[in-house]
Fold:
Amino acid sequence: ILNVEQSPQSLHVQEGDSTNFTCSFPSSNFYALHWYRWETAKSPEALFVMTLNGDEKKKGRISATLNTKEGYSYLYIKGSQPEDSATYLCAFPTDSNYQLIWGAGTKLIIKP
Amino acid sequence: NAGVTQTPKFRVLKTGQSMTLLCAQDMNHEYMYWYRQDPGMGLRLIHYSVGEGTTAKGEVPDGYNVSRLKKQNFLLGLESAAPSQTSVYFCASQRGADTQYFGPGTRLTVL
Structure:
């Protein structure tokens, strides 16, 4: 059974501090790794789709790295702001395009 | 573009009643999905479709049926609602290996 694991489950970070969290996925039959941001009472929004080993993607203060050989991806947030508070989900396609397997998410809370 | 829309936004049902949730997308995406999201759990796939006229079961399909008669619409049906189906339902669509685009969600309560 394919499994995507995220750690930690939740994280409290002081405003201004930088933080990171992990997504672990099966390293065999890799297609892609998705990161999404999910704010409370809203719907998930895509951050990145990563496909190549060693890939690094950046969107503003948020960046992600990918290691397909060892099966993990890190999401980094630099200089956390209150608006970064959300649950960050990663997801792994089971085959070429469809059926994403979702991690349970890391809930990030930024303390002012 | 409206993106992905869901109807209704909220619904309260009694046990045994039936209803249909409608998902519509205007991005010409081939793939569409229905998920449910419950407290403390991640997104769980109910059913999905890889094209007009095709559907497939996901992780938690029991008690639900779906139809994709038109490419832009994906319907989720509950024939006989149960309290265990109280949840927030999200529809999503996807083109190829791109990201999934989500609708705003439908909050369903079954009494």
Summary: Chain B has a mean pLDDT of 94. The longest strand of chain B covers residues 43-51.
